């Protein structure tokens, strides 16, 4: 791949820049040339015993620490998904549960999707999930997506109606975005879907999947080393971030209803990417 100039890399996502820097090939987005299998079309791999053990370890560890730290919508979502403790769940089964909860489905993706493919699926209420799990040396943190991040981190929140509607709107807005607006939406996604906090009973609680699926981020996000700022889409859209370390700045929304309403207002009135009505 030819070396890119600083000017040309400014339009790239954080993951694309990381790929150019050669940090992890799993972080290089994949451009799809054919439709992904969805729901019952997904064929479940034959997982090795050690891969099921990694799932069990990650699942039990996060399940122990998230009560009192994750928001109620996330915890209720875990209950709705009814994830198995001892083995990796089938994406086809989870797709059916999401369909029953909020009319979403799951597609199987071979890795991190190119943003245009990702946005298109979200706009259709389809969540793309990997079906491979991280290695044993990555238990505490992996910058690359894997099935634990996708299933345990993302899917519980998609069972919540306001979040599910917001996520579809996000896909619709991003699909029409170009240039700097696309980068603004990328940053907004990072500070909400990936690393968002929401107030419950006056205290910040986790709803972002990058926190909920990470042992270290779970403690870090609610600790004293993080600067927690009020929810502000315009400011979040300008805030740069890195994928390679614990997050120093997070934003806290008042409610999931506010997340949905404020995103629609911002994306329609300020970015012109959604109908204003």
How is this structure best described in words?
- The chain is an alpha/beta fold and 277 residues long.
- It has a single domain, classed as Phenylalanine Hydroxylase (Orthogonal Bundle), CATH 1.10.800.10.
- The protein contains 13 helices and six strands.
- It has helices at residues 6-9, 14-20, 49-65, 72-81, 91-102, 115-123, 147-158, 161-176, 179-194, 209-212, 215-221, 233-236, 256-270; strands spanning 105-108, 126-129, 197-200, 203-206, 227-230, 249-253.
- It has a four-stranded mixed sheet with strand order 4-3-6-5. A two-stranded parallel sheet has the order 1-2.
- The chain is globular.
- The N and C termini lie far apart (45 Å).
- The model is unreliable at 1-10 (pLDDT under 50).
């Amino acid at each position: 791949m030819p070396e890119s100039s600083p000017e040309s890399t400014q339009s790239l996502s954080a993951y694309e820049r990381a790929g150019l820097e050669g940090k992890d090939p799993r972080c290089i987005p994949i451009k799809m040339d054919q439709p992904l299998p969805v729901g019952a079309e997904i064929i479940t791999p034959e997982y090795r015993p050690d891969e099921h053990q990694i799932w069990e370890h990650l699942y039990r560890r996060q399940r122990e620490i998230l009560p009192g730290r994750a928001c109620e919508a996330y915890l209720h979502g875990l209950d709705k998904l009814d994830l198995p403790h001892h083995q990796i769940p089938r994406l086809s089964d989870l797709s059916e549960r999401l369909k029953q909860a909020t009319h979403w489905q799951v597609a199987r993706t071979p890795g991190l999707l190119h943003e245009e493919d990702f946005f298109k699926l979200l706009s259709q209420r389809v969540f793309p999930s990997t079906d491979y799990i991280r290695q044993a040396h990555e238990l505490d943190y992996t910058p690359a997506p894997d099935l634990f991040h996708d299933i345990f981190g993302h899917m519980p929140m998609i069972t919540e109606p306001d979040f599910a509607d917001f996520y579809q709107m996000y896909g619709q807005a991003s699909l029409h975005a170009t240039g700097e607006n696309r980068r603004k939406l990328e940053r907004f996604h990072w500070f909400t879907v990936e690393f968002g906090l929401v107030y419950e009973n006056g205290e910040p609680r986790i709803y972002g999947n990058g926190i909920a699926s990470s042992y270290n981020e779970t403690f870090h996000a609610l600790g004293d080393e993080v600067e927690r700022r009020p929810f502000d889409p315009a400011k979040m859209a300008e805030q740069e971030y890195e994928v390679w370390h614990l997050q120093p700045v997070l934003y806290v929304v008042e409610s999931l209803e506010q997340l949905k309403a404020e995103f629609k207002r911002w994306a329609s009135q300020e970015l012109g990417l959604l109908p204003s009505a």
